[in-house]
Amino acid sequence: MIAFLLLLQSSLSGTATVVDGDTLRLAGEPARIRLWGIDAPETSTAAGREASAFLQGVVIGETIQCTPEGHDRYGRIVARCRSRDGDLGQTLISQGYAEEWCRYSQGYYGGCGE
Questions:
Q1: Is 109 a member of any domain?
Q2: Which helix (H) or strand (E) segment is 35 a member of?
Q3: Digit-coded pLDDT (tens) for 17-27
Q4: Confidence band for 111, pLDDT divided at 50, 70 and 90
Q5: Does residue 97 sit in helix, strand or coil?
Q6: Spacing of C-alpha 33 from chain mean position
Q7: Considering the domain boundaries, does residue 110 fall inside one?
Q8: Residues near 27 by beta carbon (within 8 Å), at least 6 away in sequence
Q9: In 10 A of CB 30, how many CB atoms?
């Protein structure tokens, strides 16, 4: 229910803390935010811990702007999020910390082929 109510908002913004390599929590928002269109390794792996640390470095001290796209089965808001330097999903993909999740992104980031 919380995620549904938050989806009524056109955007969310605030400082972020990292839950894992593709999930954030914005200050003042009760629901976690899953970055749209990407998949990062699980935090139980070394690559997942590296992705989380990289994302933390990107968002620290920044105001993050997120545009909700829906919600997932875990109650998280699925959103496209940006820092002043650009799209967080694209940044994670371009630096090798996440892959495009073609099932959902439909090639938005250019990594799905034809």
A1: no
A2: strand 33-35
A3: 999 999 999 99
A4: confident
A5: coil
A6: 6
A7: no
A8: 14, 15, 16, 17
A9: 12
31-57 pLDDT, tens digit each: 999 999 999 999 999 999 999 999 999
Written as six digits, the tokens of 27 are 């200050």
Residue 112 lies in a domain: no
Number of domains making up the chain = 1
Residue 99 has pLDDT above 60, yes or no: yes
Q: What is the CATH number of the domain that holds 23?
A: 2.40.50.90
Contacting residues for 91 by C-beta, under 8 A, at least 6 apart: 58, 83, 85
14: domain range? Answer: 2-104
113 assigned to some structural domain: no
> What pLDDT sits at residue 5?
47
